[in-house]
Amino acid sequence: MRSRVHRAELGEFLKARRAELSPRQVGLPETGSRRRVPGLRREEVAQLAAISTDYYTRLEQGRIAASAPVLSSLARVLSLDDGQREYLSELAGRDATRPRRRTRQEVRASLRRVLDDLRFTPAFVLGRRMDVLAWNPLAAALVTDFARLPPNHRNYVRLLFTDEHMRTLYADWESVARTSVALLRREAAHYPDDHRLTELVGELSVRDADFRQWWAGHHVANQRIGTKTLHHPVVGELTLDWDTLTCTSDPDQHLVTWTAEPDTPTHDRLRILASWTAQHRADPADSGHDPWSSGHG
C-alpha cells in the first residue's frame, strides 16, 4: 500500500504544477472566456495525458496510486524538469512501511577530517532536513558561528528565515531562500514521517509569510552547484562558487565547499578572512570584533 502522506503530497504537487501552465503553453486554444481556476483545468491535464478526468481527479485527491506510464505522461504534459520528475517518481514509489529514522545524525569521521584540513576553503556538512552537522572555522567566519547556536537550531533553512544577519549576508537572499525551501521540500519526500522536519516546517510557516507561501508552492530543487555573492561584514563582497559532495557511505551527508577563482579579489579576501579567523581564535577574549556577537533566532 502506498503511503497516504506521499499520495497526498503527489496530488498537491500535481495541482501546483498545473496551476502554473496556461492552455497556450501546452498547445490548447485560448477561448477568451474567464477561467475559474489558474492554469490548466483537471480535464485539460487528463485530456493531454490520455487518461480519464475521473482517474486524474482521484490522483490529485490522493485516493489512488499512479502507474509508471501515467506518471511519465503527466511529467511530459506538465513540462517537469529532471529534478521534478525524480521527485514525482519518489512520491509515487515510496512504501508506507519505510522505517522511520529517529536516531541523531552524527557527522562521518572522514568528513570531519576533511573539514579540519581545509584551511582556506569554507566548508560544512549538511545532514537530513539540511541540518548543519559540522563546519570548519572559516565557514563559521563566513556564515555564522554555528557553535553559539543550540544544536536543534543548527539548520540552514531555519537560519535563512530567522537570522537577520543571513538576510544581509546574501546579496540575493530571496533566491537563496526560495532554493532552500525547494530543497527542503525534496527532503520531505525522502522522509515524510520525520517529526523534526514537520516541526521545522510548522515553525517557519508560522514565523515567516515568505516561507509559508513558497512551501505551499510545492516547488522542488536538486541543486548541487552554484555561485553566490555575499556581503561579508569583515572583508566585504565575495563571489563564491559552491559545490556539494555526497558521502558515499552515508548519502544523507553532504559536504558543501565555497571556493573562489585564483587571482581574484574574492580569492584574496578569503585568505584575509582565514588570517582574521586564526587571529580571532587565538585571542577569544577579543569579542569586540566579532560580527556575530548579536543574538540569533
TrEMBL record:
**One Pfam family this chain carries?**
MLTR_LBD
Query: Gene3D superfamilies attached here?
Result: 3.30.450.180, lambda repressor-like DNA-binding domains
Say which domain of life the source belongs to.
Bacteria
> Where does the HTH cro/C1-type domain start and stop, copy by copy?
13-85
List the GO molecular function terms. Answer: DNA binding
Q: What is this protein called?
A: XRE family transcriptional regulator
- Which organism is this entry from? Actinopolyspora erythraea
